[in-house]
Design goal:
Layout lengths: L15 H14 L3 H14 L6
């Protein structure tokens, strides 16, 4: 399966403060922004981090 197959793009305008905090936490966790955002959304919607 290609990396982007079955994926949809998500875009949002957020405050600079929120973006900076998000970027800082990505660095702290050693994660790409895409991966960290996916983790946050999975926790919010499914209650835990899911791996396919």
């Amino acid at each position: 399966m290609a990396d982007n197959e079955g994926l949809k793009r998500l875009s949002a305008d957020v405050s600079e403060e929120l973006y900076k905090e998000f970027a800082k936490r990505c660095i702290e966790k050693g994660m790409k922004k895409k991966d960290y955002l996916t983790e946050i959304l999975e926790k919010e919607f499914y209650g835990s981090k899911e791996k396919k």
